[in-house]
Amino acid sequence: MEPSNREILSVLVVDDHTQNRYGTARMLRAAGYKTMEAASGAEALEFAEYVCAVVLDIHLPDLMGFEVCRMLRKDPRTANLPIIHVTAKHITEEDRRESQESGANAYFRSPPDPDELVKTIDALIAR
Q1: Which of 41, 46, 39, 44 is nearest to 54 (CA)?
Q2: N or C: which end of the chain has fewer CB within 10 A?
Q3: Is residue 117 part of a domain?
Q4: 121 is a domain residue
Q5: Is 14 domain-assigned?
Q6: Which residues, listed in sequence order, are joined to residue 12 by a DSSP beta bridge?
Q7: Using CB atoms within 10 A of its CB, is residue 124 exposed (0-12), middle (13-18) or buried (19+)?
């Protein structure tokens, strides 16, 4: 993905912690992406069809990010949407495996390295 093309693409940032959500969205906007934000799994499911990628926290108040990911994969409108799990709490190898099994394309410990997150999103969108 060319940085010049980012301004036409939106990324959904899903995190129930306002500061984390704001920080990630700000980082993506600084890289040129438009962003949408959601504080719950239900909001993520509602907004996901309108974006080109989702940065999804695993620990949410209503649904686990694993389940949100599975639900997005089952919906034909979002089945191929790049999904990046980000987590501060679910950091075991088992959690990483569950992330992959739920359909996530990538997994980062929070806070993610800005350059690595942007490179990952670029690569996933370009596929």
Answers
A1: 44
A2: C
A3: no
A4: no
A5: yes
A6: 36, 54
A7: middle
* CATH code for the domain of 106: 3.40.50.2300
Query: Helices (H), strands (E): how many in the chain?
Result: 5, 5
- Token pair of 121, please? 């999103």
8 pLDDT tier (thresholds 50, 70, 90): confident
Q: Is the pLDDT of residue 54 over 80?
A: yes
What element of type H or E holds 24? helix 18-30
Q: At what angle do helices 114-126 and 18-30 cross, to 10 degrees?
A: 70
Domain membership of residue 118 (yes or no) is no
Model confidence band, residue 3 (pLDDT cutoffs 50, 70, 90): low
Range of the domain at 17: 3-58+65-112
Number of structural domains, the chain? 1
Indicate whether this model's pTM tops 0.85: yes
What sign has the CA pseudo-torsion 71, 95, 106, 30? positive
Is the Cβ–Cβ distance between 121 and 92 less than 8 Å? no
pLDDT at 2 > cutoff 60: no
**Cα gap 85→127, rounded to integer Å:** 18
